[in-house]
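User: I would dearly like some help making sense of a protein record. I have put the entry right below:
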Amino acid sequence: MSLKFSVITPSFRQGRFIERTIQSVLSQGIEDIDYIVCDGGSDDETVEILKKYHPQIRWVSEADKGQSDAVNKGISMTTGDIIAWINSDDIYYPGTFNAVRKIFESQAEIEVIYGDADWIDELDEIIYPYPTENWNYKRLIETCYICQPAVFFRRSLIEKFGSLDSSLDYCMDYELWLRYGKYVDFYHLPQKFAGSRMYKTNKTMGKKLQAHYEVVQMLKQKFGKVPDNWMMSYAFVKAEDMTKLNKFDDKEVKKLIWISFIEIVKLKKVISPKIIIKVLFWYFFPGLSWFRRLRLLEGQQ
């Protein structure tokens, strides 16, 4: 008996992208996909596009409490064995669902599968490969190396450990991976599954400080402390937001790094050697730092 997929797309005013998302799902060649779009009452072209694809997809367009609420609503309205959600500006790559189904059907002990992914631009062109890593729970606490649309999991995990935390606006996926990963190992298939769209006005790029702050608070609540990597990233983004200094300018970046260190000192009572070493590395080799790797994602040449 074949396992059935439930795919949920939360949406709000993404009319310029959502058709590409829908087509990437429907073109997977899987006949028994239960696909639902939970739109938050968009007033752009979204609803007209959704109407075009009835009855291939189900959809609702009504006010909700945000992205997490929309995904949870979609999960509750579906019955498939395998759950995935893909945002209304992301896409699946061809062959993804067949690869995932083969593993789930042949290895009953596997409960979560994630693949590799790309960051893509507004025209679906690849900007940069998503920095996916092999499964390691301790490492996952330090950095989110799993790309959300490249994840598929069994419905039984929802029944055991719950769905998305609707109080979170930015890191709901990361929190879910941390919650599930505490109990089950994830299976990493090194195959490109999805394209995650990055552009200046999306949530990830447009509200970096709010997103980092939410991650820091979530980790503190879940583990009682915040890993150095996340604290350093938050301090850097906060310093960048306060000063408006350009991290891609060799003259300004050193000042920005120094202000970041001051912010870390304010946030942490004890500064670990790891933080000091990392800050010195940033200072002397800014070109090799994680924030310089964002150049292409932020449209910098």
